[in-house]
Write a structure and sequence with these properties.
322 residues, disordered N terminus, disordered C terminus, lpxc deacetylase, domain 1
Length: 322
């Protein structure tokens, strides 16, 4: 017996045949998820609990160790971005949130409360795979409100020395990323990610963070990377890497950069319809581009899935009649 939700509408059939992905209704997780792990930079054990959230909540961190103080995952609360993305609200800090946010966005979750009892999100294995797999296995609940998208209308660009990043209009979420390091395992890598069903889990989620041996001592003197190990990062020597296990992809490094970009872009608060082009970027330039985009209110609008579906159906029908 087919349930009503199992029957595809005309616009869903059109979009699937065109390779586009449009989720019609907002989504949250179906049940709470418990996660425990060590922070990459603090080295402190942290407990996480992801909880379902009502429509239009977005992602909200709840510091359970500080009387349930809430920090929305928003560009408004970006504190500093160097080796991780940090949120700050009224002096309360939440650090290294990008991998978890990337997994939530990659799983197309719109609304989630994130209880956390310390300052830093656990690093787990250095990727977002564990977060993502737990979300998918736990289950996703479709909600009643139409999904809202931030649609890019005009190109916005930013440059810092040789680092470049832009976002421009597109019918879907897409990232074209290039990185370049003078290291034999990296050199120049390029990857294009298209946010269609399942691509995140297959192509991005398992890519791990990486660092260089010559940087580690400096980081630790600055009280950073205190929880770093070969279990949660790729550690590169001048000639190769310390890890005994092989790379998960030959281009794992650029894939991880895309993972970070997805997490940082999630701070705009809505799924993005637009194409991002990134060259040699980091957390700081990611946050600057998102801030600049939101400041230029003529360069974007907010559109509901129902309007997008109607527009797409009309366009597809018109083309089929030509």
């Amino acid at each position: 017996m087919l349930h009503e939700s199992s029957v595809l509408s005309w616009h869903e059939i059109c979009m699937q045949s065109s390779g586009l992905k449009l989720i019609m209704y907002q989504r949250t997780i179906s049940n709470p998820i418990e996660i425990k792990g060590v922070g990459l930079h603090t080295g402190v054990e942290t407990n996480l609990r992801l909880r379902p959230a009502p429509e239009n909540t977005g992602y909200v961190f709840v510091r359970t160790d500080l009387d349930n103080f809430e920090i929305p995952a928003s560009v408004e609360f970006i504190g500093h971005c160097s080796y991780a993305t940090t949120l700050v609200r009224r002096g309360v800090v939440l650090s290294t949130c990008e991998h978890l946010l990337s997994a939530l966005r990659g799983a197309d979750i719109d609304n989630c409360f994130i209880d956390i009892d310390n300052i830093e999100v656990p690093i787990l294995d250095g990727s977002s795979e564990n977060f993502y797999d737990l979300i998918i296995r736990t289950g996703i609940e479709e909600q009643n409100s139409p999904r809202r998208y931030l649609r890019v209308l005009q190109k916005i660009s930013i440059e810092q020395d040789e680092r470049k990043m832009s976002v421009e209009p597109a019918e879907r979420f897409e990232i074209d990323c290039t990185i370049q390091f003078p290291h034999p395992l990296i050199e120049k890598q390029q990857f294009t990610y298209i946010g269609t069903n399942g691509n995140y889990g297959r192509e991005i989620a398992s890519a791990r963070t990486f660092g260089f041996t010559q940087e580690i001592e400096l980081l630790r003197k600055a009280n950073l990377a205190l929880g770093g190990s070969l279990d949660n990062a790729i550690v590169l020597t001048p000639e190769g890497m310390l890890n005994r296990q092989p790379l998960r992809f030959s281009d794992e490094f650029v894939r991880h950069k895309i993972l970070d970009i997805i997490g940082d872009v999630a701070l705009i608060g809505l799924p993005l319809l637009g194409k991002i082009v990134a060259y040699k970027t980091g957390h700081a330039i990611h946050s600057r581009l998102m801030s600049r985009l939101l400041e230029n209110t003529h360069a974007w609008d907010i559109v509901e899935s129902t309007e997008l579906a109607d527009n797409f159906e009309h366009s597809h029908l018109s083309q089929s009649l030509v």
